[in-house]
């Protein structure tokens, strides 16, 4: 059911095995982590979730968050019988999603800071994480090769117009955001470095989905800058 809707990235973690970097911020936010058996992380890969949202006619302010929560609830109620559960992403604390994705075997951080997967490339996203008090099989998480290790040309680095992408020093958030907010910026509603990555190009988001994500992000950046 989840895969058919576009949540093709799935991982289950035993609460007892979660590292402190995941548990501590949640406990500090008042989440009773010890009341649950497992943490489930779901993510999209490619444009399938966007197509599901469009076909369902969802027109809320945050369709990806809302639909992902609804799908998670349907899974918990219909497939697990409705045990106690709690969504923690999006939620009360900042979770190290990249670290969870790495622990799940989805991939590792790319020079853009985004998780890169050997199948979906940079076209995946963490969508919902929830605790659930129910026994679940631990989904086998294969160790994917890191595509960046065998990429000699690093086209993502060359494609960034402000040099914000660096394979050695990491992603320069400040340089990126300062360029994005400029009038007529080529990166306002897209990321040229992300588009230049040769991995998983067949899973690239369509123009409408790309515009949705980047317009939302740009609006958040401008709100932050205006309030600073």
Provide a descriptive summary of the structure in words.
The chain is an alpha+beta fold and about 230 residues long. It has 2 domains: about 1-130, no CATH class; about 145-225, no CATH class. About 40% of the residues lie in helices and about 15% in strands. The chain is built from 9 helices and 6 strands, in the order αβαβααβαβββαααα. It has helices at about 1-5, 20-30, 50-55, 65-80, 95-105, 155-160, 175-180, 190-195, 205-225, and strands at about 10-15, 40-45, 85-90, 110, 115, 125-130. The protein has a 4-stranded antiparallel β-sheet, with helices on both faces. A two-stranded antiparallel sheet has the order 4-5. A hairpin with a 5-residue loop joins strand 4 and strand 5 (about 115). The termini are far apart. About 30% of the residues are buried. The mean pLDDT is about 95.
């Amino acid at each position: 059911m989840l895969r058919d809707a576009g949540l093709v990235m799935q991982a289950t973690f035993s609460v007892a095995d979660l590292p402190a970097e995941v548990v501590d911020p949640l406990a500090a936010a008042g989440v009773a982590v010890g009341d649950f058996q497992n943490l489930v992380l779901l993510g999209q890969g490619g444009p399938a979730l966007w197509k599901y949202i469009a076909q369902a006619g969802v027109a809320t302010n945050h369709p990806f968050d809302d639909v992902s929560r609804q799908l998670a609830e349907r899974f918990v109620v219909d497939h697990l019988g409705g045990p106690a559960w709690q969504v923690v992403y999006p939620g009360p604390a900042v979770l190290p999603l990249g670290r969870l994705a790495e622990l799940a075997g989805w991939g590792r951080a790319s020079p853009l800071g985004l998780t890169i997967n050997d199948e979906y490339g940079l076209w995946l996203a963490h969508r919902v994480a929830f605790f659930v008090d129910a026994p679940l099989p631990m989904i086998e998480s294969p160790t994917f090769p890191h595509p960046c290790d065998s990429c000699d040309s690093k086209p993502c680095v060359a494609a960034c117009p402000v040099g914000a992408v660096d394979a050695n020093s990491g992603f320069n958030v400040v340089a990126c955001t300062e360029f994005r907010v400029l009038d007529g910026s080529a990166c306002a509603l897209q990321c040229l470095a992300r588009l230049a990555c040769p991995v998983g190009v067949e899973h690239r988001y369509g123009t409408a989905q790309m515009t949705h994500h980047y317009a939302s992000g740009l609006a958040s950046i401008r709100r932050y800058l205006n309030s600073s």
